[in-house]
Design a protein that fits this description.
With 202 residues, the chain is α+β, with helices and mostly antiparallel strands. Helix content is 36%, strand content 29%. The chain has helices spanning 32-44, 59-66, 68-85, 109-124, 153-169, and strands spanning 20-21, 26-28, 49-56, 91-96, 99-105, 128-130, 133-135, 139-145, 174-182, 189-199. The chain has an eight-stranded mixed sheet, with helices on both faces. A two-stranded antiparallel sheet has the order 6-7. It is globular, with a radius of gyration of 16 Å.
Amino acid sequence: AGCESGPKVPDWSINAIGHVDRFTEAWLKGDQRVARREFDLARRYHKPLSLLLMDVDHFKTVNDTYGHAAGDLVLMRLSDVCRVNLRSVDLLGRFGGEEFVCLLPETHGEQALVVAERLRQALAAQVVEADTGDIRFTVSVGVAEAEGDDASLEEMLRVADAAMYVAKKTGRNRVVAGMMWLKMGNHSIGTAMRMIQYGDAD
């Protein structure tokens, strides 16, 4: 995944709405309306909100070893497992390639870590049966919570992406929490990592 070369700035500038990724039945990253509505509600009513960003580990190897059709099956399985394990109020989006984002309304960071770890374990237990062989796969997950009145959806994504990058660099198949703190004035939001904690190196 692109995140393995360093933290990136997610692109939420696309304005399409109501567009579903028919392949995985997940919302695409350009479909901002529903996610932003949840974020605005959380800010307005001072409700907690958390976000998970997950990436399939060694996905290129899966494609190279088993074929792209098998890789597609892995992504569909990931989407299915997420929907089974998430609440009806949670939002699942395909963030691009093998990355998926989960927005968790009324969920504090500590609760989001529990959700992320449950997903990680559920996905690691999967066996995807493809014509070219049985596939096991794992995910690395970054977690972010909306903190402070100046928090934004973009900053949550940046923090979760940076945390996911740390998860990749420290062995994959694990969950890492990112934390935000505001600097003076209008300066940028900084990011700190709390090394969880959850998961095993593959």
